[in-house]
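quick one before i forget lol
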Amino acid sequence: MTELMVIRKAVEALSVVLLGALVAVPFIQVVMRDAFGAPIVGAEELTRFLLICLVFVALPLVVAAGENIVMGEFREALPDKPRRVLKLAIAILGILASAFVAYATWVTILANLNNSTPTLKIPFWLFLGATLFGFCGVVIVGLLQRRRARPTNGNVRH
């Protein structure tokens, strides 16, 4: 198993754990509040945190699977050459935009190292760390996909 496969499996496993926790926390909150009259303080904040982490941690998996929004029907309706140019432009712009968001997130993390959420005191760098992870992952996935799409020996891969 290659290093990339190990990383992919680890990200998939982390995403499943985050999804399980995202389902479990509100469920436990409802049971504790309704059955025992003892709501969990900060459950809503923890649920928001888990949702944010899940979305951004899983983002590279979505991009790698080609399941992100790409307006594929419009693109596929184009003739071959404009379609290839558009695919390349989308890939390059996606990589650049993701790199910009990753950079902006990094700068924001450095500016907010001492800030935390009001109830549970979750450090903001954890929220933003998931965002940084996701967009850095998208950049890496995009670069790897472009590398695989390069022509070799006159053959064009799609």
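fyi The helical segments are 3-36, 43-64, 72-76, 80-111, 124-149.
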